[in-house]
Protein 1
Amino acid sequence: MKWNKIAPLMLVSVTLAMSGCGNQAAKQDSKSAATPAATATAAASQAPAKKLTDVKVVLDWTPNTNHTGLYVAKDQGFFEQEGLNVQIIQPGEGGADAMIASGAAEFGVSYQEGITQGRIQGVPLVSIAAVIQHNTSGFASPVAKNIKTPKDFEGKTYGGWGAPAENAMIGSLMQAEKADAGKVKFVNIGEADYFTAVKRDIDFAWIYYAWTGVDAELRGEPLNMIYLNKYSEKLDYYTPVLATSEKMIGEKPDLVKAFTAAAAKGYQFAIDKPEDAANILIKAVPDLDKKLVLASQKWLSPRYKDDAPRWGEQKRVIWENYANWMLEHKLLEKNLDVDKAFTNDFLPASSK
């Protein structure tokens, strides 16, 4: 009887003990199983952030809507996503091309004419993307001056910065209309404001419509615009472009690819969302005229890509045509090796 009563109690005790051991083991196993995951999570949270590569990109001029894509890429983290810490800087006295060529800046904003002339002189600059597909520059004058065609340049005063290309450009356009370029007076106005100069010293000047032309609209000062590319396909060259050096391409192609990919995203953002892009530029450079930036961005955004299959795409014929034009007008000493002056190799398949 005694055994009969004790045996069940012992069985219950052993069962409970085993159950307790099992629960304890389960808890221990659970704790052990959780440890690696918890450790990994903790380690990940304490792991140092990926080191970014410092990069400088130098502008060709004071910040404006030609540069919006770069500021967007920085603001939206596109450069950082590509592993880059990008600093956007102003050009020194020697200009952007000199800084790119010397390595003072890895990348910069340049233009086809500058790269062409530089390469002829042995400066190994390379264009890696066209910021704008078609030339938006031309000769502007107040409507009151009645300059509607290049022939109307006769007897007028042109205000420029003293570059040989200016004389050649005006002469080329006037020659096409059988006008006499010798009847144009040339005045060097340097960096003088267009609006002040046309009221005081000159009749017409070379401008980019996206900035000065749009500004004229906002000021209520209508102007006549003679676009270069309307008179010759050879003058529909790329201006501006993003550039780097042959050394960068040869030694750090992955860095060039990363920079170009991020820039492409920045400009695509500006194409898709001009107002947002304008506000990013204004935030980065608060001294800019907000109304001008917004109006300029709306005018320029659809022209970044225009009829190209993707933003940044460059055509060999454009480089060849303008180099031939420069050679014809004695602005070059020899033929340009076109295929070394530009590349599409670092552009993403799509900027979307």
Protein 2
Amino acid sequence: MKVTTRKAALGGLAMFGAAALLAGCAQAPEDNGGDGGGEALDYLPCMVSDAGGFDDKSFNQLGFEGLVKAADELGVEYNEVESAAETDYASNLTNLVDQGCNTIVTVGFLLAPAALESAEANPDLEYISIDDTVDTDFDGTTDAPNIKPIIFDTAQAAFLAGYLSAGTSQTGVVGTFGGINIPTVAIFMDGFAQGVEYYNEENGTAVKVLGWDRANQDGSFTGGFEANDTARQIAQGLIDQNVDVLLPVGGPIYQSAAAAIRDSGREIALLGVDADVYETDPSVGDLLLTSIRKGIDVGTYNAIIEAGNGEFDPTPFVGTLENEGVSLAPFHDWEDRVPAELADKLTELQDAIVAGDIVVESYLAE
């Protein structure tokens, strides 16, 4: 377990896009106690990672970047606690409570039970839950009034990635695998499969999806979120079945997939998730067709800015294509290999999803 307290500084963190990326979240005020002067805020925002750690080049890193940017703008210090295993979650949250944190951000679906227990025990503190609604009784509402969920209907963006993958595949076989079969992982895989199915329906093709069975809502999973030999073997098994587009969903497991792709000696496109992996990990940039992005960094930033200025709002935020909370990253090095008509079609499909003319199924869909 690693715990640090520091004055926020952007340093080498990736720069943010427009602060308005997540429509519906409050914008940063012009005078918020930052470097522009005024009385310093008596406010301590904190964050606990899941077992992937803050250097996962994915959703933990994005959440951390949002924390750092918000703390820097507010002119306050922040605390971070990095979990090495799931067994650390409850004790890490207790650690942050004991250190006087005002707002605690929990990163990841698996942290939700510990977050709820901590929130119920500390009703005067504010909690921000990334990737889970913290609805353990499944009644459609968050279980504690002091928790703000930041969640993402990534099936919508994954649908576009599936359509794109089917349109660029030369073998007619694409594949996906995940870390653990939990909703925030499966939603990518299911949206991806729906996009491939739609491509087949529109074009009279039969592109296959390996690694995910929509009917049974199950597929290929590593059992964790580590870049290890298990992840590499699963990726290799899909490659051996002739896939030429591969979507690994689960933080660092994409690194194992990239290693398997390089070992194959074939041209196989890699899809990133959460962040634009081309930017967070340039070492795999040449393999990336695109990434399915979630605006975790900006969502975290906006929620902490609100809380730091006494405007904490527990209303859940759901990122969609319409509010740009989810999106596809640029094609980067693959730009010349994506036909213009296919790129134009993706824009058309996005517009149709936003308009409700195409319904992408997911547990977050209305």
Protein 3
Amino acid sequence: MKIGVPKEIKNNENRVGITPAGVLELTKNGHQVYVQSTAGEGSGFSDEEYKNAGAEVLGGIKAVYDVAEMIVKVKEPIAEEYGLIKENQVVFTYFHFASSSELTDAMISSKAICIAYETVEDKDGTLPLLTPMSEVAGRMAVQQGAKYLEKPIKGKGVLLGGVPGVEPGKVLILGGGTVGIQAAKMAAGLGAIVTILDVNLKRLRYISDVMPDNVFTGFSNEYNIRKLIKTYDLIIGGVLIPGAKAPKLITRDMLKEMTPGTVIVDVAVDQGGCFETTKPTTHENPTYIIDDVVHYCVANMPGAVPYTSTVALTNVTLPYVIKLANMGWEKACAGDEGLHKGLNIIKGEVVYEGIL
């Protein structure tokens, strides 16, 4: 199969769909890989490394789309790419269709086969292709939140870890999934007081068992959220409904109950966000302020640490890419129930319930 790896053109997106190591595995399986020139530079991979691994490096993005039977990307195609996608072409990437009707309509019109990383499932119901980026984003949420709590950036002026004689900052995490666990690890490691809210009591029991003593759990409901937001410094939204829009757990009126300079980080922004006031931002302009509350809603957080993110992503996507290339998308998806759940749009027809 001819596999294309275009350069990501979303604002400040430095990741790339496949590492040179991934290219080598694909060429060993008899496939041709076409990589757009400089596609890997942001992640620390040169054109020469891709050539040495067996790829052919092409000069422009159109050349890659023109030659490829399957496109392997990181982020969803943006408007400039819509017209490049061909009928019957397989596009394997993060799509997050639920948050963009424009993207959905464009992919329907393209009549391509759209397989979304974020809805591929393991046998146990987990999301293997979303997990590594959720791990990165969860850890980054605390890093970024800690930074934006600084007073020069309009935060409260709170150091999350505190110092002797001064109590540490308080972090509220909505959702006890991968994002929540990783955020809690980071915040707890800094010495903050951490509370995780979730509706799954089995998950809360697990979190209570494995987390250090400065991490607490609570049941997620509006009453508890309203109570806690009044005294917490950093609030991280990490809820997920696979393939569908995230629920709005913090409403506009709740902002007035927070103390000025509170920072909220919405990791669910790709799925529409779990705060009512969420709007996607970029690494170039990552924050905005509403009612004296600092919002950090960058839609591609892991793009800021592209080497780590690209290697982590290729580690999990490559077996699926090889399967799709070896067998073709129809046989591969028919024989793998988890991969089949990654099918979102097939030749103009929406087949994933979450985006209907």
Protein 4
Amino acid sequence: MTDTSTNSSAFDAEKEAGFGDYFALLKPRVMSLVVFTALVGLIVAPVSVHPMVALAAILFIALGGGASGALNMWWDADIDRLMNRTRKRPIPAGKVAEGEAFAIGIALSFMAVVMLFLAANAVAAGLLAFTIFFYVVIYTMWLKRATPQNIVIGGAAGAFPPMIGWAVATGSVSVEAVLMFALTFAWTPPHFWALALFVKNDYAKAHVPMLTVTHGRAATRRHILGYTLALAVVALALGLTSIGGPVYMTVAVVLNAMFIKGAFAISRRDDAACEADQHLVERRFFKLSLAYLFGHFGALLVEATLAPYGLGGW
């Protein structure tokens, strides 16, 4: 391809891109999880925050999450073009040029960190900067294509938002913040491995060393069960802290019982059964995993809402 054709393609992409394409570049689904868990971390903290400060902080945390998404799409454009579930993203679809995505990601990263520092404090801004670095450099550029443990270690990037929210309010990190981090961290592997079970061919085609590709589906099913059991311990431990309470523990017990039941069901299946029902059990488990995390953080939010009336907490 000549320089002329390259420039023309970039121009065409820029010309065709609309607001929706740029918004998709920021991975809005992931951003919604970032915003929600960060907001919960901020609200359940023992220090009150002025509503305008809280609103600004959540906005800048969201921008940081969106910046990470844009930089992830910039770096992964080559493999996104190969996978069915990602080929319609703005860059592989030819809507946004790679260089443009990179520029947006860098600009939003800088803006988010600086503005969070000005709106809140250095601890929160530092955690946000590290989160962006970890997701883009450690996970996207290195781990994702280097090891089947990519999603295990890389999951830390998605686990920082509640800790950042807590730091916005308190200017520090505590055991409650660490356990909120640990909840999301331990949830990430079974969540993504469930997805990997029914999109294995996509990862294989793109040469991404997901556990299903390197060790097979049987090993992945065993790993899902092991991490699900460990996740239940973390979830219940969080309920015993100052931000837990009867509402949270009830939700945690029910959701973890359902999650463990689903993980056991997956562990007993084989490839023939999965192919026969088109991975129905795995798809249900993946959907449950989405409700699982929102349910736990939603229960923490309820505890914090009831606390002023003497109804929440222990």
